Fold these 2 entries.
Entry 1:
Amino acid sequence: MLSISVQGLTKRFPNHLATDDLSLDIEEGQFVVVLGPSGCGKTTLLRLIAGFEQADAGRIHLHGREVTQLPPGARDLGMVFQSYALFPHLSVADNLQFGLQLRRVSAAERKQRLEQTSALLGLDQLLSRKPAQLSGGQQQRVALGRAIIGGRRIILMDEPLSNLDAKLRQDMRREIKALAVKLGITVVYATHDQAEALSMGDVVVVMHEARIVQVAVPATLYERPNSLFVARFIGSPPMNLLPLEPSAHGLRIAGTQQPVMLPAVQPVMPIDSSASLTLGIRPEHLWANPAAHHPQLLMRVDSVEYQGSDSIVNGHLGPHALAARLPGRAQYAAGQTLPLGWSPQDLCLFDPQSGKRLDLAAPTDFLHRSQTQEDAPCNVVIS
Amino acid sequence: MRFSVWMRAHRRLQWRAETALALGVGAVLTALVALPLLRIGQQALWADGSWRLAAAWTRLIAPDTLQATVNSLIVSLGGTAVAVVFGTAYALLVGLTDLRGKRGLIFLLLLPLMIPPQITAMSWAQLLGPGSALLKPLGLAPAPGSSNPMYGLAGITLLLGLQQTPLVFLALRPGVSSLPSDLIEAAQSAGACSLWRLRTVLLPVLMPGVLAGAALSFVSCLDNFGIPALLGTPVGYTVLSTLIYQKLSGFGLSVLSDVAQLSLLAAALALLGLGAQGLLQRRWQGHLSGASSPYCITLGRWKTTLTAAAWALLIAVLITPALALLATSLVSIYGLPLTPKTLTWAHYQSLLGDDMVRTALRNSLWLAGWAAALTAAIALPVGYLVVWDKGRVTAALAALADLPFALPGAVVAVAAILMLLPPLPVLHISLYSSLWIILYAYLLRFLTLAIKPVVAGLSRLDPALNDAARSCGAGLFMRLRTIVWPLAAPLLLGGGILVFLMALNELTVSALLWSSGSETLGVLIYNFEEGGSTGAAAALSVLTIVAVLGLLGVLQTLSRRLPKGSLPWA
């Protein structure tokens, strides 16, 4: 059963469009991460679902019930705020019970739920404290507890970890995910942190300028981004993007003499040989000193960032910046020319005008995956 | 299905709750603030379906109006100059140096804000007058029969200045204490000599505060009634506020239009002052980063001297007059020196037996209590609507509530008369010459004092608190009760006590609105003094000061539990 169904949701603020005709279906029990840069409309999407904002157009169904016009309290969902929004004048116990008291839940049941939730989140020792006496991580737990204590099946989380330090954030990621799985709840989780999105999400919804640009499982999102925006946004360092131009001997990297042989697979969309293309390849899909027969890119090395398990070698190819993730401690001098090998199946090709991906090679697993619901409709269909 | 129908009804009810609250608050603010301001303009400029600009012009250029206007401007500008000099000097000393006993100094500096101006005027007149109970034993009092040196232009200007010094001091404090030391050090390392340093670094930091403080004190000087009434009237020195009082008390309601025109003139002068400040302020805009630690000048060997001088000056201008007041209240007949033989409690005892004193005390407490309670009751929903509901209409009306506090008190009083003189609709009774008209004027005048701290305090809270409560299913009134009220209660209390203090000290408005049976403490002191019962007036003043200090003590204790900035000091 669909847990959340959003159709054509549009919200216009006085001087900008916050969400533009968004449609999204979320299955019961899914952990959905809404990912995007700040100002992309992800928080507005959550606030529309929660009922804090009224949509200008579109409909929202929760568990099959239309809630578009209902006030937040009647939508039967929980919300965790970026700032936690704990009531500063109430104790932890009263914060947790706030909603239960409003719904006139019997004292016995309240007590039982309070015990259950506080045990689940490790808050049993803190129940009589005020929020100001808690650490950031503890406040976060209380906010979580307040959202789940009522037994709600849908929990919305708006950048819940952004106020924690890096170490704690990693721990809480695992904890929140485990909690969601354990309770079987549907979670919609907004963040601008791609590491959170990739590690926590069953499905990731990428938003950009008020629109949904891709809905996919994390692996697809990373390996087969459907647009230049997603390719640039996901991955650190991001995907290398090299514009191609036609030449007498086929395609070459724009502004250089370096030819690029595209795999001999029939492209989905007939590629006009005079049209410009952008080639994308992940830094980890490049390797140093390939065999002579392999396709190569010649990089002029600028700098090497040692990262422990591997090294990021930054350089350029003609006028274009290029990065390669090479294993171990790579030692190259600035100015050195480094041949990098690549495999055709790792390539992504984009139309620089529309920004969309033009699928070339279609790995078998990709063929399979693109038939599932999870891939975005704007992906090019493979014939 | 039935469930969803119920939900829809529930939703409509909720929306209606928010809208209903905004409508209700809007109606109250309109009746309380917007209508009186419009009404006074109408009375002054419009009659029987046509503009009465000619009549207004005649009033404007009448000799008594012109004289009062000129006098008002002179004493207000003079008073502002005095306030700026004193306020700036003390703000720099307290803010930039390692002077001793700063907390005590600040308390003394802010005291004039809390002491009714008519009491200040009276105490100075009694200190320096020929009848001074304090100077007589020392042989320093002016010769009997000579005129009081405090009467007239100089005395009024000096006291207005002292009265407004706290305003300049308060306006300057944030700027001075945020003066980043690295800025001065940068100027020093760039080779700036000390005068140059003052000009380039201090001036931009200080000017906005000086201008804001000067504008406020100019407006307050124009507004002041107690000082010119007690020090100007005896020698025929009339300013606008006393002119309005004389007209209204001499000719009654027949001169209502004249009085409205004079009020409009006073309001125009006040707005002119605020406008000039706005224009000048633009020159000094620009922000300083306050990242580094505040600058502190080590006084070294000057420290003791300066500390002593700073204290001595404040004691001379604040404590000595109060002592004179005390002496006058204890001396059997005003004019005799205070000696063991002339010492008496008779004035205090006479106050105890006086019905009028009891009535006035009851009236003042009733007025101050209700004014505090009602302004707080209005401030709570206004704060919620402005901060958490982003209600623009409410915000505009709340901003309008600033105006009656900035405008001269006489304007507010005349507006209250105009609103409440005609019989109320439905009830067909007139509230004129009852306590209600004074309460109405106090609400109009002091409402902003209660709204400001609530709006400021709520703005510092996380707006998601409201959303969190909504998503837990709390309706509007539940949220007001369980979230907004507990969080805003200390703010309301702070604002309420401030309104209470102001209302207790108030004279400008009540002097124009009182009638037999609705005297306030301020009016009574004024009437005692006017009627020659100087001893009784002094005794009542001493008791008022004691009460004010007691209230300040309560507020000080409370201030530790209030969020920063919800009180004008601390």
Note: Residues 265-270, 361-383 of chain A have pLDDT under 50 and may be disordered.
Entry 2:
Amino acid sequence: MSIIQAILCGVVYYFAIGNLPFVGLWSLQRPLVCGFVTGIILGDPLTGAMVGGTINLVYLGFMSAGGSMPADMALAGILGVAFAITGNLDAETALALSVPIGILGTIVWYLRMTFDSIFVHIADRYIENEEYHKIWRANVLFPQLFAAVITIIPCTLAAYFGASYISGFIELMSGTILTVFKIIGGLMPALGIGITLQYIFKGEARVFLFLGFVLAVYSGLGLLPLGVIAGLVAVVYVQLSDRERVSE
Amino acid sequence: MADEKNKLLSKKDLLKSFLIWETFPQCCYNYERMMGQSVAHVFAPLIKKFYKNEPEKRKEVMKREIEFFNVHIEFGSCIIGMAIAMEEQKALGGDIPGEFITSIKTSLMGPLAGVGDTIWQGVVIPILLSICIDITLGGTVAGAIIYAVAIIVGAYALSYANFMFGYRSGSEAIMDFLEKGTLKKILKGAEVMGCLVMGGLIANYVSMQTGIEIVSSTSTFNLQTQFFDTLMPKILPFGFTLFVYWLLKKRVSSLKIIGIIILIAIVGGVTGILA
């Protein structure tokens, strides 16, 4: 990996969690998307998107609410893909490597949430002086410069130095260790699904989890047709339960 | 709430306010005021339209709007629209106490954050991601592109519609929506659809198989292919996912669960129980 590519990885990380624009949190932050962009930087978009998508399964229903950030999926996605492409890793191994990275990355988020309070007091002073046209500086300019520094530097360094060690590191790993990595990669998506289930596995909807599973196992349908079926089933279900309520 | 004749703001002003809200709400996200400063940012270009010659009143509005605020950006954007409408009516001489605006904002942000996070991050994103990841792993980057475009366009569209709804209809309509049956129906349908997709996702993307073989003098019995696969393929991943869900229900943190998964993989991999 060249230093330019490493810096670009750092910039992707900044846009993924810097919240400028805000929708970056819903789009570029997801490993599927930032993995794809990292893949473009490293000259292999398809591998980037596929490895990123696999890593993303772990973070499916991860919720950032009330200023919390349970895992830094952007850093996991970008570095996981960068290491997968430079070190020739398969998706499961990259996933197993990226999960601890995602835990480490949350430091950046909490650092920001804490230090950004300083800029609010600058805005308070602007209001006191009736300089309302300057509020954007306190709300966007200063905190975003700060965010750029604390995101681009660590991610660039990790991508650059990590990539040069990764192939040697993987060579050291023999049969059993590699098997363990693959098992981790296979099991970890259960966490992403489990977290999502916390919000939707409720009451009468429960049975549909089993239905979806059985349908997928025996029909071999992909998620897109299954999603369409699921949407239709949901409409029918709501209509039927509505009719019952009316007739009662 | 906003009377057609009694307006200080043009459509362009509203569009600009909306764009500031949807684009910069978390540029300076912090523990002290959360998104409060961003609300002040939204009001900054409007304030001279509200009070042309009364600097003290301008300052009063800005001080009120920079207070603590936190909500789901897209679902809560109706609160910003509503707050703008209320400040506009107040500036036009309406008898609206400042504390009233603050208390309405604060009382709405909790419920809308709860509903918004559940629907958006708990249902919409997981379903859309599941489908797009599946498309991508089929060997095309289209999945990643479709997801990014759909979620960005969806976020801006929902947020804009909601912002204008709040501006036009006011706080009572928002309360009404929160309490009426429509929301419950949407939630129920989302749960059904989400459960179905998650079931399919388990079958496709969680993998767990045992390597246990029972060898006798005459034959080998492979527990995975000759027992579990004939019982029901993917039964182990399904059971394991329910186990993780159960742990989460028991309030085991996701960090600990990651540790447990790694531990299971090491023990299982070394002993050959898992393959």
Note: The mean pLDDT of chain B is 92.
